[in-house]
Amino acid sequence: MVIGNWKWVIGGDETFPKFSYLIPHFQLLILAMEKRILGLDPGLANLGYGAISCQIVPGKQDKNSVSMIDCGVIQTTPKQEMGQRLKTIYDDLHEVIEQIKPDIAIAEKLFFYKMGNTILVAQARGVLTLVLAQCGVPLFEFTPAQIKQALTGRGNADKSEVQDAVARELELGYIPKPDDAADALAVALTGWYDDDICPKKIQLETGKI
Q1: Is 13 tagged catalytic?
Q2: Average model confidence (pLDDT) across the chain
Q3: Residue 180 annotated as catalytic
């Protein structure tokens, strides 16, 4: 069941506290709310993606949790002509979204540092933006410094610190590979940490959402 931007987990699993919640004509047992976030690290040769499931338990903030759904990389090669490379990203990202069914997407904001590389990344990012719009998935952006700050508490943290934080937060016991996939998970987690995107304090009132 989907209400607003959240999927409501309904049933009798003892993992979560049981909330009896009355909506006109329906008596529902609300256990938790799930939001799936797709993190994206834009690139032409390697476009990293990482999906997480965020569980919010109304009235029980200490029971909130996050876990990895999947991660990977969409790859193209310089041997392909540009149009074919962009088509590969277009087709593969559509497939990823169809499989994961994210509620929102988070992407690293385009960062200008080398003009040639920036133009290539910008083209891939344009395809990314188009695919998300076609699939009706809202897109949010964060700068590299904001992502590092969210994961480590320091906006100038190095890559290894961010990757360690990803593995720790998702309780993986390993650092996801390749690096672009780990970066995409860091982007997704930044969305989870943002209370405007993922409010953590949610109370249920009879007859209201």
Answers
A1: no
A2: 81
A3: yes
